[in-house]
Structures are given as C-alpha cells and as structure tokens.
C-alpha cells in the first residue's frame, strides 16, 4: 500500500552574536527513485536567500547558499510531499559466489569499503562469524541486523556525529546513525555491498490522515544482494511506506543534512524539529 | 587595483621615504654632535630616539654608535633603515606585478647589498652608509618616475611617500629643536634636506632659524616642504576618488589633509613659530589619522577569513 | 691550459653529449667546441654573473624557509629536432588521453565498464574528489597546464616517469634560465638555432581565456597564489606579470551566489577564470579543509554553476596517482586507438599478491614510490637504502599495498655539469610543459631539465637539492621558421610604413655654448 507523506524539517542555528558570512550546503530534499515519487519539494532559508541546486556524486539533491549580511540566527526548512511504497520483495537474490565475483566487487567497490566512520575491530569480526557462515547472503544480512539489535541499545544522545562504528559497538549503545554504521561495517566485512541512507520515518503504522506527528531525521541501510533493498536496524523493520529517502552514501559524511562554514560569533544553540503528516 | 596590492604600494612609498628620511636625520644628527664639542652626546641621542618613536630601545647613556645601530643598521629594530628597506622589499615582492621589474630589482638588490654596507659603516663610520641609502632611494624615485604607469598603484605609492614626508619633515624639525641652538645648526638641517641651495636661492640671505622653519614648512615649490607634501597627498587622493561630491569633500583622509594644509598656510607665521613643537605634533597626528582613514576606505577587508565548521 | 672536459668518465648511463667513443654527438658538436676552449676561470666568472643576476631579480626558490638562487648549470641540454618531434607528439598524445580519462571518471565511468582500469583503483586514490563530479569545464578542458616528466634510459629511449596534472611548477625557470643563458653565453646562441620558450605565458593566457564561461567576451583571468611564502611564489608572480593579470590571494576574492569577484580599491570586480596554484584541499573551505584560510569559500559551486572556471580543474590529481600511471598506456589505446608514442617505465602493482611477493624479495634492487606524492618525497631507491629503511618500507608496503608502486632502477641519462672546477657527468630528467586550449595541445619546446647535483644521485627534484639546465630544442635544419607550428608572420603595415619613413636625425642640441649665445643674441636683436 502506498502512502503520501508530507515532511517539514526545520533547523535553526542561534549564535552568541553576529555572524558576518556563512556558506552552507543542505541535503534535505527527497529524490524520486524506484521506491518513492516526489510530488513537491522546496527549501526555505531565513535570512532570505535563493539557494543553488545540484545533484552530488551519489545523486542526492543539494542546495547551496551563502549569506553576507550580519545575522544572529539561521533557519533552514525543508518541505516535501512524497509518495512512498510498501516494502518490496527481495528479487534477484544472488549466492555468495556471484556476490564475491570480481564483477560485483568492482561495481560496488565504494559500498564494500570501510571508512573512518564505518570501521571494524576484532570483537565485531568475531560476532559476525556465524552469520557469514550462512548459505544465503540475504539471510546473512538479516542475521546481521538481528545481531546489531542484540548488541546495541538505542540511547538518545549517547554518541556524536563523529562516533565510529567500533566505538559505538564497544560502548553497546547509540542512535540510528550508529546502528547503521555498525551494520554497514559488518555487512561490508562479509562482502555484502551496503550503503547509508538518510531520511525520515513515520513512527505510527496506524497513522491517521492529516494528523501531524513529531519525528526526527532518521537513517537506515540499503543492502545489495542482487538488487538493493532497505532495512531499518534501529526500528527493526523493513523499509517501506513509512520511510522517505533523502540521501545515500558510504557513511554519514556523505549525507550530512546541513554542513558549512561561517565567520563571526560562536554557535550558541541548535534547534531541530521534524513534522510528518500522512496525507494519503 | 586589488586592495591588497594598493596597500603594498602605499607602504612601499612610505618605507622608501622613511629609510631615506631616517638616513638624512641620522646624518644631520651625527655631524651636529661630532662637530660640536659643547653638545651632550647622550642627551642629544636620547632626545633623537624619542623623536623617532624608539625611546624604549636603549636605556641610558646612549652613544652615537648605538643610535646608528638602532635606527640604521639593525634588522631587529623595526624602525631602522635596514628593517624599513627590508619591509619595502617584502611589500614589493608581494606586489611584483604592479611595479616594474627594474624597481623590484633595485629594492631587492638594495636589501641584499645592505649587509655589506652595514659592515663597512661599522668599521669606517656611517657616512657612506647614509649616502648609499639616499642614492638607492633616489634610484627608486627615478624608476617610479620613469617606469610606473600613472595608474592607481602609482597614486597610492605617491600618496604613501607624501604622507611619510610630512611626518618625517616634522620629525626632522623636532630633532633640530632638541639640540641647543648653535650657529651652524640650521645650515646643517638644510643641508640634510638638500634644501640649503634652494633656501639660498629663495631668500638670498644668511640662514635664519625662523626662515628655515618657514621654508621647510610652507614653501610651495620645495618638494620636501610640509605644505608641498600635504598638497601632493591631497591631489593623489583626489585622483583616486572617482565619486567626488559636487560640493565639500566626502573622503575623510582628504578632509584631514586639506584642513591641515589650510591651517598651516593661513596661520600667522609668528604664531606658528612660537608654538612650533605643538604644530609639529599635530601634523604627525594628522598623518596618522589620514593613514587610518585611507586604510578604512581602500585597504580594508583583505584579512583572511577564519572559518568555523 | 687544461680542458674542462678532461677526465670525463662515461658509465652505464646514456650520456647526452658523448657517444660510446667519447666523441660529441652531432647536436652537441658546436657546444662542445665552445666549452672546450674555456678555462675554469672564465667559466667561474660566468657563473658569478649568473648568480648575481638571479639573486638581484629574486629568481629564487625556498628550501627549508631560506631563499636561494635557482641553481642553473651553465652547460645546456640539447635536443635535436627529430628527437623533439617525438617528445612533442608523445606528450600531446598523453595529455589528450588523460583529458578523456578525467572527463570519464568524473562523468559516465565508461572506462570502468570497459574494464580498462579498476574502479576500485581510481576511487581509492586520495586525489579522487567526488566533489568534482558534475563540475563540467566550459570548453571541456581540465588539464590546461601539465608537466609530463621524462627520463632517458640506458638505450637513449625517452620514457615517461610521472604525470603532473595538478599545478606543475618550473615553467618560470625555463624562461628565466633561457634569459640568463643568453646574457651569460650570448656567443652560443649565435652558433645554434634554438626554438624560443618565452611565448609560454601568451599561450597560457590564450588557453585560460578560451576556458572562460560561455558568453563572456572579454574574460578576466587571475592567478591564485597561496602567498609569497609559498616555495613557488616566484613563479606565480612571474606568470601573473607575464600574462598581465592580477596575482590574487584567497583573501582578495569573494564568492557570492556563485559569482566570484576580487576586492579592488574601486569596489569588487568580476573574475571569470582562476589559474590557481593552490592544492585542491585548500581551495574551498566549504568542500575541503574547513580550516583553510588560503582558499575561497564557495568557489567549487561557482565552478559547478558555470560562473567561473578553475584551472587546472579540481580532482586532476587522480591521474597523477602512480598506480593510475601504470595504466596510462592502456588508456591511450582505449581512448585514442593509438599506440603510446612514449613508453612508461616498467611498474609493479603491489596490489597483486604475486607481484608484491616478488617485489618484497628484491626491495634492494628496485625504486619504491608512494603513489600520491610528487617532488620526490618519500621515494626509496633500493640499492642506495639502508637496511633499516628497507625494513620500514617492507612494513609500509605490507600494511598498505595501495600506497606504493615499485619500478626498476633506471639509470637516468647523464649530461656534463660543472662541479668542482670541471665538467662531470650528472643524471638529468626532462619536464616538458603542455598547454591545452581545447583546440590543440601545445608543448613548449624544451622544458625544464633537472639535474641531480651530487655524484651518482638519481634524485633531480629541486626540493631535494637538484639543479637545472637550459634546454635547447634545435630548429629543424630544413625549416625556415623558428616557430614550426605557426606560419611566418606577414610583414605588418607598421613595419612597411617604417621602411618608407625617412626620419630626421635627433636634435643634437647646442653644439657649443658660443653658437647658441650668438643665435639668441641675433634673435633678440632682430
């Protein structure tokens, strides 16, 4: 069953004084793909500017903008309406032999490689031994998600954006970003291509039409075992009609919602709110 | 023209003029003290250091040799001739595309040759060193005249040079006033400005203290006089200002310099001479205020940004 | 009188001046004859002239923070017309293929699908910047300037040692070396027809103007330098002056809404093309190092939006990667359907297990290079390395095979070089510079010949204490023009008119005082 999801994502930076200049890039706009169709999207910045829009190397829509008048706060709002679809059956399932062929390794090199954030240590290697012994890569991937659920406890604020997979794994807790980084590290170490996905999730499967629900930026995993399929290790659910995709990449660094540089006063407070409304 | 380059041109003008004027002032001072047994060497030297804004450099019992080190030879003292010429050369290095190759080579070669000249001066006396510095400044001046396009870069250089000349001529006069009045003293002052002959042709009479002050402050044709330099600086600013108002003067630096020139020109001479040190001090303040106004208008915003992520 | 060539010893390496029988090769005959007749005192005098001239002009480079005159050896390196024709074609061919390669890896990636070069190899290069994907240069050129380093092996064959497609430096020394040589040894130029190098800045400016965003009739070009404390600052300043454009630092530029302007005393002025001599990592704090105060925030997106052209393009460094280098002959075949004109030096790829095992066994016989360094940094010459260096190297390779390549030791060719009061053989290489204006790749005739000054040394980089030589490409004896790639200029209107004009001699002035006085008196009396 398809949903129609309206999202309003607002981020406000408050500074201790005046900021003179500021250059930013926002990745807040969903892109039409095989799981979703974007009906409308816009980006609104205060103080008012006209952003420049482009697609990055991973196909994500980026808005870049710069401010040159002194300002003590900056608000970036992403608005969108997206039609999403139910979880798809996993097609074209490959066996380990095909997955580990040169051709697959070559094609999905970026999503098989560890990064600074998606790293691996001996204790992580040890836990996925069993999973990698499974006959079928798709089952192995599902087993990995089970492992991650078992090893990690969801604790808001437990980690920072720069926390690595191994740090989160050894601490035993984290947020969605850490669930994803740990999953990616384990999957990639087994030779299963996997990528980071950022977006939004509507938390109520039984949501009423028109009801506004508070949400937050979310992240999950795309796995390739002959075809790409999504899984949300934090919520322990398949990716479906409640998920809106914004960006994909190797790790969090490729999908950072807003990044930039500024000159002037220091950052005082960051206010973020996400509002989700099911429209159909 | 790039603001950063304009600033370099302005400072090349100032530094070269400063080096030359410092050489002239040290030259006057040295010969005055050496030739006159009645002068207290230490007191005169301390007073000169104060006039040159380097009072803190040496504590007590200043000798002529020490003053030549501090104001002449030592790269460690920012106001020395050597350090000033080095600063001019560094500015030229950063602005090579705005000046002629000959000009750059002259400043560069001067800097490289200075070490040897200093060694000679330390063993044989400062005279040849001062002459060398004046000669090189003259070469730079000649190349400015014959090889630079009359563009904004040229104007900033001329502006810097003229402002520095006002400042330095004021210091020269103060330096003269710090040693006891001696018969040959004012002649030496004129000589060191290359102004003795010009003075004689102008006044056709013996050197007289008040006439010398008048000549160096107010003469309209002598290029090192304060009034001439103020006028030159003001003209350079007028050429640079492309949005001149129909009435009055918007440009702060121009206003400051113009007012100062008018004040000198229209003040009664006896009044001026009676309070000479006061007026000389004011002139220096005017130069500082004008330089800061010029920086605000033309050179600002060229500092690198410090970004936070 | 002793001959400065006395005791000149030939060894295994190919010597540029002398053949096996110790006779000068044909292109060197006249040069040899002139140099042979010089005494050491005469030669030393010319060296002193050279040093003074370089120092006064500030033709220096920084070594460990100290300004030194650029070391020019006064014996030029001579390249015959036919040899040069080969180099010129070979370099141009290589640049054309690498242009297509860069457009491909930052675009469709067809070279990966065709399995010519592994994607993993390109994507894992530290100089592959995903930020450059989607930045499409207006006239398609990414390699506006390149320096392709060549060496000559024991058989006299020119081989490519490395490609420099980022910000190759040295062209200012090529031009200044020639100028110094013509002052120090004017008589040599009378006996040789040497192709000129001084047209380089004009060619570069044309190429940069051709690279401007579309629809701009009269583009403003600037040179972007990290500042005067950069080792190559002399060159940045040289190029700006010779092209007649502004030399800017990052702080002189500001980018607003993708429009780049420079701060001038009369307000801000639009900039269209930036010839940058600043590494990618420092270019734009928004995309790369946020702590860079040398760059310009927003620059890369301005280029992406097509409002400014960055030359050379961001991300070119991936083609300089020494592992990618090992694939260039294949890239030439794939993109151009041609056989490579200039061969590579045989290179071992250490990512392949068997190759690595073999190389690890004979580290002491090979040259090992870090894949992403230039300027000779990190290079280890096996036969000259200590046991400790080799042990460290082995560990480094095992830990990170992607970071290294190995090559056979090539005896670079030698050339007579003035050392200890006589001419001695020293190893040299050659960096020709190519300029691509989008229509054709032009190679400046000659380039920078670098010399390893210590006896037996194979490291020529100036950052490692190397020197240089003026490089003479001799005109084809059959050609009539010194600019073989340009038709001879027709006589201009001006010169024709000048021939017709019969000017009066300059006013001699008063011939003597009396005559003038009389004349004046006569005038007064009339």
Using the coordinates shown, work out and report the CATH topology of the largest domain in chain A. Answer: C8orf32 fold
Oligomer: heterotrimer
Q: How many strands of chain A? A: 15
Q: Could you tell me the strand content of chain A as a percent range?
A: 35-45%
Architecture (CATH level 2) name of the largest domain in chain A = Roll
Strand elements of chain C, count = 22
> Which sheet architecture does the biggest sheet of chain A show?
8 strands, antiparallel
- Which consecutive residue ranges of chain A, at least 5 long each, have pLDDT under 50? none
Kindly report the average pLDDT value of chain A: 93
Helical element count of chain C?
18
Give Rg of chain C in angstroms: 26 Å
The tally of structural domains of chain C comes to 1
CATH class of the largest domain in chain A: Alpha Beta
How far the N terminus sits from the C terminus of chain A, by CA atoms, comes to 10 Å
Structural class of chain C: alpha+beta
Q: H/E order of the elements of chain A?
A: EEEEEHHHHHEHEHEEEEEEHEE
Helicity level of chain C: 25-40%
Within the largest sheet of chain C, what's the order of strands? 3-22-21-18-17
Description:
The complex is a heterotrimer of chains A (280), B (309) and C (526). Chain A has 280 residues and is α+β, with helices and mostly antiparallel strands. Chain A folds into two domains: 3-83 and 256-278, Immunoglobulin-like, CATH 2.60.40; 96-255, Roll (C8orf32 fold), CATH 3.10.620.30. Chain A has helices at residues 96-99, 102-107, 122-127, 129-132, 137-151, 165-171, 176-189, 252-255, and strands at 3-29, 36-46, 52-55, 61-67, 71-84, 153-154, 173-174, 194-201, 212-215, 217-224, 228-232, 237-238, 243-249, 258-264, 267-278. The model of chain A has no long low-confidence stretch (mean pLDDT 93). Chain B has 309 residues and is an all-alpha fold. Chain B has one domain (3-299). Helices cover 73% and strands 0% of the residues of chain B. Chain B has helices at residues 3-35, 41-51, 64-73, 81-93, 101-124, 127-147, 152-178, 185-192, 196-203, 209-218, 226-240, 252-266, 269-274, 276-299. The radius of gyration of chain B is 20 Å and the shape is globular. The two termini of chain B are 32 Å apart. With 526 residues, chain C is of the alpha+beta class. Helices cover 33% and strands 21% of the residues of chain C. In chain C, strand 1 and strand 2 (66-69) form a beta hairpin. Residues 515-519 and 521-526 of chain C have low confidence and may be disordered. The chains are: A alpha+beta (280), B mainly alpha (309), C alpha+beta (526). The B-C interface holds B 1-6, 90, 93-94, 96-97, 101, 104-105, 108-109, 112, 152, 156, 240, 242, 298, 301-309 and C 55-58, 227-228, 233, 237, 240-241, 245-252, 262-266, 285, 290-294, 297.
């Amino acid at each position: 069953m398809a949903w129609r999801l309206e999202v309003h994502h607002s981020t406000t930076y408050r500074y201790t004084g005046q900021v003179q200049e500021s250059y930013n890039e926002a990745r807040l706009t969903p892109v039409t793909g095989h799981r979703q169709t974007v009906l409308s999207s816009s980006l609104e910045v205060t103080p008012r500017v006209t952003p420049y829009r482009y697609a990055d190397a991973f196909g994500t829509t980026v808005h870049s903008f710069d401010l040159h008048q002194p300002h003590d706060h900056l608000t970036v709002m992403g608005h969108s309406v997206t039609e999403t679809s139910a979880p798809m059956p996993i097609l074209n399932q490959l066996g380990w032999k095909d997955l580990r062929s040169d051709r697959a390794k070559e094609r999905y090199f970026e999503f098989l490689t560890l990064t600074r954030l998606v790293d691996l240590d001996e204790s992580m290697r040890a836990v996925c031994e069993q999973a990698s012994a499974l006959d079928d890569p798709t089952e192995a991937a599902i087993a990995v998600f089970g492992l991650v659920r078992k090893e990690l406890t969801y604790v808001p604020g437990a980690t920072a954006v720069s926390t690595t997979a191994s740090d989160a794994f050894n601490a035993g807790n984290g947020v969605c970003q850490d669930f994803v980084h740990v999953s990616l590290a384990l999957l990639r170490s087994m030779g299963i291509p996997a990528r980071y996905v950022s977006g939004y999730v509507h938390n109520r499967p039984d949501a009423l039409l028109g009801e506004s629900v508070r949400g937050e930026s979310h992240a999950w995993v795309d796995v390739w075992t002959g075809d790409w399929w999504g899984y949300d290790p934090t919520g322990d659910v398949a990716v479906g009609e409640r998920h809106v995709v914004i960006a994909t990449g190797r790790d969090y660094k490729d999908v950072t919602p807003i990044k930039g540089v500024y000159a002037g006063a220091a950052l005082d407070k960051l206010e973020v709110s996400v509002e989700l409304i099911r429209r159909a | 023209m790039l603001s950063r380059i304009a600033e370099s041109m302005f400072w090349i003008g100032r530094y070269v003029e400063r080096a030359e004027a410092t050489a002239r002032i040290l030259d006057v001072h040295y010969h005055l003290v050496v030739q006159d047994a009645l002068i207290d060497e230490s007191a005169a030297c301390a007073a000169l250091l104060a006039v040159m804004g380097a009072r803190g450099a040496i504590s007590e019992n200043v000798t002529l040799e020490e003053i030549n080190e501090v104001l002449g030879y030592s790269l460690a003292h920012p106001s020395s001739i050597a350090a000033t010429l080095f600063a001019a050369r560094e500015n030229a290095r950063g602005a090579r595309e705005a000046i002629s190759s000959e000009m750059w080579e002259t400043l560069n070669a001067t800097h490289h040759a200075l070490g040897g000249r200093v060694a000679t001066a330390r063993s044989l006396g400062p005279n040849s060193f001062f002459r060398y510095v004046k000669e090189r400044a003259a070469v730079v001046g000649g190349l400015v005249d014959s090889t630079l396009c009359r563009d904004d870069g040229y104007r900033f250089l001329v502006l810097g040079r003229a402002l520095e000349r006002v400042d330095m001529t004021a210091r020269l006069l103060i330096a003269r006033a710090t040693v006891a009045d001696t018969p040959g003293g004012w002649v030496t002052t004129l000589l060191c400005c290359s102004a003795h002959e010009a003075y004689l042709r102008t006044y056709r009479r013996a050197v007289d203290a008040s006439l010398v002050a008048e000549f160096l402050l107010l003469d309209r044709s002598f290029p090192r006089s304060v009034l001439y330099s103020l006028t030159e600086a003001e003209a350079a600013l007028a050429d640079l200002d492309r949005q001149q108002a129909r009435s009055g003067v918007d440009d702060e630096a121009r206003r400051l310099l113009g007012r100062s020139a008018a004040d000198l020109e229209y003040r009664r001479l006896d009044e001026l001479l009676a309070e000479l040190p006061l007026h000389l001090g004011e002139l220096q303040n005017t130069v500082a205020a004008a330089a800061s106004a010029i920086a605000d208008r033309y050179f600002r915003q060229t500092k690198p940004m410090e970004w936070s992520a | 009188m002793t001959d400065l060539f006395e005791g000149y010893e030939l060894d295994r390496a190919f010597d540029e001046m002398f053949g096996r029988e110790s006779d000068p090769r044909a292109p060197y005959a006249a040069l040899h004859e002139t140099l042979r007749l010089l005494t050491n005192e005469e030669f030393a005098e010319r060296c002193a002239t050279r040093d003074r001239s370089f120092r006064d002009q500030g033709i220096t480079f920084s070594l460990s923070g100290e300004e030194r005159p650029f070391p020019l050896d006064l014996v030029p390196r001579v390249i015959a017309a036919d040899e040069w024709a080969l180099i010129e074609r070979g370099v141009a061919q290589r640049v054309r293929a690498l242009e297509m390669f860069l457009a491909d890896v930052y675009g469709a990636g067809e070279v990966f699908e065709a399995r010519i070069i592994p994607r993993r190899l390109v994507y894992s290069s530290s100089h592959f910047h995903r930020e450059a994907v989607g930045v499409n240069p207006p006239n398609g050129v990414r390699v506006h300037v390149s320096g392709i380093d060549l060496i000559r092996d024991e058989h006299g064959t020119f081989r490519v040692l490395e490609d420099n497609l980022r910000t190759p430096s040295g062209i200012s020394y090529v031009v200044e070396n020639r100028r110094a040589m013509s002052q120090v040894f004017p008589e040599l130029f009378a006996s040789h027809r040497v192709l000129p190098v001084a047209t380089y800045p004009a060619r570069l400016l044309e190429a940069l103007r051709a690279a401007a965003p579309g629809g701009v009739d009269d583009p403003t070009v600037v040179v972007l330098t990290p500042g005067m404390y950069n080792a190559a600052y002399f060159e940045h300043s040289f190029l700006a002056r010779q092209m007649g454009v502004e030399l800017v630092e990052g702080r002189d530029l500001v980018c607003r809404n993708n429009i780049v302007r420079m701060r001038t005393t009369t307000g801000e002025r639009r900039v269209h093309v930036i010839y940058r001599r600043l590494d990618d990592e420092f270019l734009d704090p928004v995309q790369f190092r946020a702590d860079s105060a040398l760059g310009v925030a927003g620059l890369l997106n301005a280029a992406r939006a097509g409002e400014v052209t960055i030359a050379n393009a961001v991300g070119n460094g991936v083609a300089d990667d020494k592992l990618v280098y090992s694939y260039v002959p294949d890239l030439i075949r794939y993109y151009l359907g041609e056989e490579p004109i200039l061969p590579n030096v045989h290179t071992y790829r250490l990512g392949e297990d068997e190759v690595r095992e073999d190389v690890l066994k004979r580290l002491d016989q090979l040259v090992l290079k870090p894949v992403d360094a230039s300027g000779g940094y990190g290079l280890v010459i096996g036969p000259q390395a200590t046991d400790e260096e080799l042990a460290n190297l082995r560990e480094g390779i095992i830990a990170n095979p992607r970071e290294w390549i190995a090559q056979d030791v090539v005896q670079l060719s030698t050339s007579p070089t003035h050392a200890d009061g006589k001419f001695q053989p020293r190893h040299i290489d050659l960096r020709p510079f190519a300029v691509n204006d989008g229509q054709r790749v032009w190679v400046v005739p000659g380039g920078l010949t670098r010399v390893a000054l210590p006896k037996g040394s194979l490291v020529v980089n100036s950052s490692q204490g190397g020197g240089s030589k003026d490089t003479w490409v001799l005109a084809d004896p059959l050609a009539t023009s010194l600019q073989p790639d340009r038709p001879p200029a027709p006589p201009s209107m001006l010169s024709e008119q000048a021939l017709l004009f019969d000017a009066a001699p300059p006013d001699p002035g008063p011939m003597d005082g009396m005559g003038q006085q009389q004349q004046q008196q006569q005038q007064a009396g009339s």
